[in-house]
Amino acid sequence: MQEKILIVDDDKVVRDVCREALISEEYEITTSENGQDAYEVARQQYFNLVISDIRMPKMGGLELLGNLKKLNPDLTVIMFSGLGDVNSAVEAMKHGAYDYLAKPLVLEELKATVRLALQQTKLKEENTRIRKEMQGTLSTLNTTPPAIPLLNNLPLDMFKEFLNLGKMRTYDTQEIILHKGTPDKNLYIVFEGEITVWQDGSKLFKLGKFDCYGEMNIFKPHIVIHDLIAEEPSKVMAIRRDALIDFFNNKDEKYFKHIILNTLNSQFAKTRKISNRVIFLERKMRS
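The structure assignment produced for this chain is given below.
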């Protein structure tokens, strides 16, 4: 799907030049000749990016910026400024503009700035999507907390607080999550999909929904000895060790003891998986 850009300038020549330059980059372009018209268009359509002049009739660029941010605080906006509008451009940056470009425009600079701005838009949209998914996940905890073995015996409110420490990320099939030999201080919890754990080219075991990796990082950070690879599209939460330590420093000691016991049980289960894998491979070699 083409990314949609709204160009706002009272100078038709500027609008047309920008339009042609950005159409060549395969964006979908809409133009408006003043801030008032642009605002009405933006109320009716979604745009990935708005590029606006500062000085225009009916509604200037700074007023338009403020109104657009009320419609969508995450909207990315680039401002045009003439040589005498530098102070206004700086003011626009303070009020949420992504960047400003000085006139006369350099088209290659315009294209490069637009590319960077759209990358930021994608990151914002991805972060918003992940936050909503996390809110949906956490809201279900009010009645049915997920069966995460590592968090057995934690009270519901502490369970939710624990998960709020993490950041969720989506991995594509065959995407590498962790490389052997890299320092790591995170705890990983699989929420969707399937992760395989490899060592020296051999598959050791799989991690499924609500399985964890890196539990021992809670007690001591270490060098990763495995490769973790997504076998299918997967959602994995990562929680930093320092956040975990701060979390348990403010809790009753008995809950940390629960985590210790759950970690030991988890490590035992993984050792058993590895042993079963070794037995399977030995039998396969003999047959």
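Interim note for the steering committee: The mean pLDDT is 84. Residues 82 and 103 are 5 Å apart (CA to CA).
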